[in-house]
Write a structure and sequence with these properties.
Mean pLDDT: 83
Number of helices: 12
Distance between the termini: 18 Å
Helix content: over 70%
Length: 307
């Protein structure tokens, strides 16, 4: 990656990363950290919406609100802004809320495997098509890598796939498009902490309005609320700061493709933390997904495309 781009990431994260090693290693390390956060977030959402009685509207509100509170405190402590502005913008905030809400409501009706395929398929389509529109070009080896990675995803999720309900499918596809838009808009942000904090703060009134609309189905569950707080404060809020810090250094296609690692990492979490079995199918699918990602991301002369 160009050093000038990496230096922007240094400013966004912490001034201690000012040595040659960090300049070359920061992007892959932070990208991996963001993917781990996303995978953990998936596990938390699945646990809350499948194993507790909390309703999707309340889960979304608690998730967004707790993320806003923690990020506001972090921003106050490290004083990342030179002005008193909130940061972020209303379009990104709306995209964030549409993703979080669509994901939550769809998860109630759509199976985990089918939902992941719909979600990441929509993310891929949104980000790659936008990248092509802005002049990014995929070499033949990158197209092959994308196909291999998507095939690996289908292999990983296939045993759990089933015909999903129409409404749940639309919600999950909408969530994927919204997340793609949110990620694309992050490519032009100069300060990850300020932008993410502002987006979460601006998303709170949207989430509150959503909760009011679905007040009839209000059902608070202590375990579900705890899952939502952890999801919002840690794996969403802080995870999205990390993601926004690396996005300026990634082409749209690379940023889209690398997210296919999330189901692999989530499955690994299930194996390590929940005692789920390690299968040959998981190993083969993981090799295909991670190998395909490598073919897309490890390009010789990456070129940036401004939005």
């Amino acid at each position: 990656m160009p050093n000038s781009v990496a230096c922007v990431v240094v400013t966004n994260v912490s001034p201690v990363y000012a040595n040659p090693f960090s300049l070359s290693a920061r992007v892959p390390i932070l990208t991996l950290a963001a993917m781990i956060a996303f995978a953990s977030n998936s596990l938390l959402c699945r646990a809350a919406l499948k194993q507790t009685s909390i309703d999707a509207g309340s889960f979304t509100f608690v998730r967004v609100f707790s993320g806003a509170v923690v990020l506001w405190l972090v921003r106050r402590m490290i004083r990342t802004t030179r002005s008193g502005g909130v940061g972020g913008n209303w379009i990104s905030a709306l995209a964030l809320l549409l993703y979080a809400a669509g994901f939550s409501f769809a998860y109630v009706a759509v199976a985990a495997g089918t939902g992941a395929l719909l979600l990441f398929g929509a993310v891929q389509a949104t980000m790659i098509l936008w990248g092509l529109h802005k002049g990014e070009c995929l070499r033949a080896i990158q197209i092959l890598g994308l196909i291999v990675a998507m095939t690996g995803l289908v292999v990983l999720l296939f045993p759990g796939l089933s015909a999903p309900p129409l409404l749940g499918s639309i919600l999950m596809l909408g969530a994927g498009v919204a997340w793609g838009v949110y990620s694309l808009r992050g490519k032009r942000e100069k300060n990850a902490v300020t932008a993410t904090t502002g987006n979460f703060v601006r998303a709170v009134p949207f989430a509150a309005a959503l909760s009011i609309i679905f007040l009839r189905w209000l059902d608070l569950d202590l375990a579900g609320v705890i899952y939502a707080i952890i999801s919002g404060a840690v794996t969403s809020g802080l995870g999205y700061v990390i993601w926004y810090s690396v996005l300026p250094s990634l082409k749209a296609a690379s940023a889209a493709t690398v997210q296919l690692s999330v189901p692999v990492l989530a499955a690994a979490g299930g194996i390590l933390l929940l005692g789920e079995p390690l299968t040959l199918r998981y190993l083969l699918a993981s090799v295909a997904i991670l190998g395909g990602i490598a073919l897309v991301v490890l390009e010789k002369n990456p070129a940036r495309s401004d939005l």
